Amino acid sequence: MLRFIVRRIAWAIPTLLLVTFLVYVALRLGTNPVYSFLRANPRATPDKIATYKELNGLGNNYVVGYLNWLRHFVTFDWPRSIKGSREVFPALKDALANSLRLGLAATFVGIVIGLAIGVFAALHAGGRRDVAVNTGAFIGISIPPYISSILLQLLFAVYWSRWFGHTLFPTSGVYPPGHEGFNAILMLKHMALPIVVVAIQIIAVYSRYMRSSLLDVLNSDYMRTARSKGISERRILIRHGMRNALIPVVTVAAIEVGSIVGGLIITENIFDYPGMGRYFLTAFGDGDFPLMMPWMVIIVASILLFNLIADVTYAWLDPRIRLE
Amino acid sequence: MRKTTRGVRYAVALIALSLVAAACSSDSSSDTVPTDTVAPVPEVSYPTNLADCANVTYDYTTPASTSAGMTVTYDIAPEAVWEDGTPITAADFSATWSASLNTPGSITTTGYDQITSVEAGTSDKQVVATFKSVYAPYKTLFFPLVKAAALSNTSDASADFADFLGYSARPYKMKSWSPSQVVYVPNDNYWGTDKALTKKVVMVPKADSDTEIASIKAGEVDFIYPQYYGGITEAVAQDDITSKVTFGGDYEAFYFNQKCGPFADPIFRAAFSMSIDREALFQQIYIPISDQASLLECGPIVPGPYCAGDEFTGSFDATGAETLLTDNGWAKGSDGYWAKGGEAAPAVRWTINTGNTRRENTQAYLIPLLQAAGFNVAADNCDAACYFQQRLPALDYDMAMYISTAPPDPGYLTNAFVCDQIPTAANGNIGQNSQGWCNAEASDLLHAADAETDTTVRADNIKQVLRLMAADHVLLPLFQFPKSGFWRTDKVGGPVDGELNNYTAFRNFDQWTDVDGDGQIVIGAEQWPACLNPITECANSSWMVWTSAFVVSPGVWATTNDGGYALTNLVTGEPVVTVL
Questions:
Q1: Which residues contact residue A34 at a Cβ distance below 8 angstroms, ignoring those fewer than 6 apart?
Q2: How far apart (Å, rounded) are the C-alpha atoms in residues B418 and B437?
Q3: How many other CB atoms are found less than 10 A from the CB of residue B109?
Q4: Rounded CA gap, B200 and B177, in Å?
Q5: Which residue in A120, B272, B421, B578 has the fewest CB atoms around it within 10 Å?
């Protein structure tokens, strides 16, 4: 296992370099970073332009330029943003923390509930309860986040405030306006609606995955063998059924968490939530190359990392699988 | 578990090498500075071919000053101090002048480039600004006034105020700023009588209009100032929310790019402009927004002393447009579009920002009518960032439609309409003349207006320019846009509706009261400043200055609701203007 992890990490480094190089080239071709800088600084002196190009690796040769950018990146000599001339790391760190908090909480809630519902549906396959779960799942998948967001905002903020004089869950932000410092309760209260919006989709998807995966397992030969040995149905379900049914689900879940790092663009926008999605939209709108490149690196790195986690978890759940 | 075949590895390596090789061989044109190669042509050239656009040059010389110059002497109030108690002095005026003039990316050098010195007079509480020539819009200068001690380098302020605007000479000072909120608390050293009435004022971003409305209805924000649209009053309606809709300096218009493209041909442009029935369009698009509205006839300015009010009246003349084209050798081709010498005019690219329903409706209404009139018009839209930050400044459009906010002084017309403010390689690509309109007579009149102290003569100059704009079909004014404010009566009181149509918008919030006693007033902001620097291009957004610089920065003059200027308590009296 250890050898596998080391090998995967060793492979991940060139992959990361290759993908970030491609992203670097794509951003230079697609956004013209020097022009973006000049648009924000129309009377920049040649010295300033040269410094900006040097720090961002924007020389004529893409390979040399990329290596130059990489040198500044790995030594934490990050260039400041074009808009506002601000340090990039604090903003990126805050956005990442916000997105991870929201994404992981929503994924955890969504997967736990989704799996439970999936097991329930599989155990009652073909019955009315199964039909109800399936119908609910289809409705959940079909409701886009911008609809569920507005409905939840109306119900728990607008109408609740009208009925009871105060909102149950706020419509936006991480904290109430004017709050400064850390407060877990207030934060959770503000995250409640975005978590529900994201979790609705996850619950719907994972209940479907779990149901079909568990049905496959429950009908397999080794389950029949286990039953014939007289093992209790509860033990069969937990030790043999659930564990095997979880294998494909866990793989998908790990990859999905990796993509959540990139932000939940629609949800974050509607709830004015300052995460990675909002960060990227703003940076892209301004053509802010110094903001976009580190964002891209984190996205690529997180996808590679969570793919690795998926593989390791896969092997842990199924000892027959050898990571060689 | 997983074995990568040798073939796959080779394929991946081959693809990677190909990409690297392709990248290495890429030319550097993609990120080089777009430059106009200015050909030394003797006369104005107006290509209709887009590829030739970069070669356009303008044969115009800014008129030399006819005066020996002028001085403006300001007497700063003895009690005027910054938030830390240090006095406001001539050094702050000098620093503001130097930073505005010299900072790379300065939002405007206009006016400051007419100043030759800013010095202390009889004491450091007296400022003498010396101008090269008479500069009539001098009231627009030194606002926002920046604290000298807050600048690291008065020749380049671009690295300052990245995430905090710590100085203040106004009732409130900034306590903190983040991408999520800005918090203002009372400035204890503020010397005026209009001291802050609430412990805390918080502004929070509410970029999505549905969230903005939900927030005020839920009581999470106390006040919002959204761009007005038909139906918004009904959308926000609630017993404890009141509103005011008023008219200020915002106006919407069509603009025609004359630097290149189909409208570089003055006959084609005139005929196109004459084919637009503004009155019908007004009934279709704007009356549903406000039934009290009337068609804007002035041009790029709102009604007032600088506009006669009939400059663009009678702009629609479909028959005249046909006659104009046919008299000049144009004829409709088999496709129904106008062509000259058998060659069709280039298609007109009408650009707006996607998602703006009103503008999209305008396109949907007007494009079929224009096509039926023989003009090959097509929507060529992009998102707001692309539209406002790339396409318009780069003059990469044929026809555009947007709202502008006119400050009280008409000096902004010089920036936006004189020949020497068309971005070209010759002037370092500066200027805000995004129409590419170069009319020497109009440019001379605008420059003369800036150097005219007699307000009647100045107004006459501006009115003449507006008529020249109408004659040249530079734009078609449409609508003086309403300004709207909505607030919770159970949470905020006082003169909330006092300055909604002011250029500085709700800057009077220091006089608002905290009705619900929660210790704060919360304002929802439709746009959020990506930066706080009031000197640089960052400040090129109304919301940026409304939420930051205008709150803390003093000025000699304040704008008034009726589009004028009033002295502030920064000075002891009217500045003394002396023409040399």
A1: A49, A52, A53, A58, B31, B32, B33
A2: 7
A3: 15
A4: 13
A5: B578
Angstrom distance (rounded) from CA B497 to CA B487: 9
Round to whole Å and give the CA distance between A12 and A5: 10
Those residues whose C-beta lies under 8 Å from the C-beta of residue B217, and which sit 6 or more positions away, are A157, A158, A161, A162, B236, B238, B241
pLDDT digits (tens, 9 = 90+) for B43-75: 344 566 666 676 778 888 888 877 778 999 999
Nearest to A58 among B26, B31, B393 (CB): B31
Contact A44 B202 (CB under 8 A): no
Residue pLDDT, tens place only, B296-327: 999 999 888 999 999 999 999 999 999 999 99
List of chain A residues whose C-beta atoms are within 8 Å of the C-beta of residue B533: 84-85
> How far is Cα A177 from Cα A175, in angstroms, rounded to an integer?
6
| Whether residue A314 has pLDDT greater than 70 | yes
Identify the pLDDT of residue B541. 73
Distance CA B346, CA B380 (A): 14
Cβ contact B179–A94 (<8 Å): yes
The C-alpha atoms of residue B200 and residue B512 are separated, in whole angstroms, by 11
Contact B222, B523 (CB under 8 A): yes
**Contact indicator for B331, B338 with CB cutoff of 8 Å:** yes
Q: Is the pLDDT of residue A52 over 60?
A: yes
Contact across the interface for A153 and B238, Cβ inside 8 Å: no
Residue with tokens 């009539």: B136
Task: List CB contacts of B22: < 8 A, sequence separation 6 or more.
Answer: none
Contacts of B24 in chain A (CB under 8 A): 61-63
Mean per-residue pLDDT over chain A, rounded: 86
Residue B215 half-sphere exposure toward CB, CA atoms < 13 A:
32
CB of B29 less than 8 A from some CB of A: no
To which H or E segment does residue B26 belong? Answer: none
Residue B140: phi and psi, rounded to 5, are: -80, -10
State residue B163's pLDDT score: 85
Q: Does B26 touch chain A (CB under 8 A)?
A: yes
- Tell which B residues from 429 to 458 touch A, by Cβ distance under 8 Å: 429-430
Q: Which residue of A has its CA nearest to B519?
A: A178
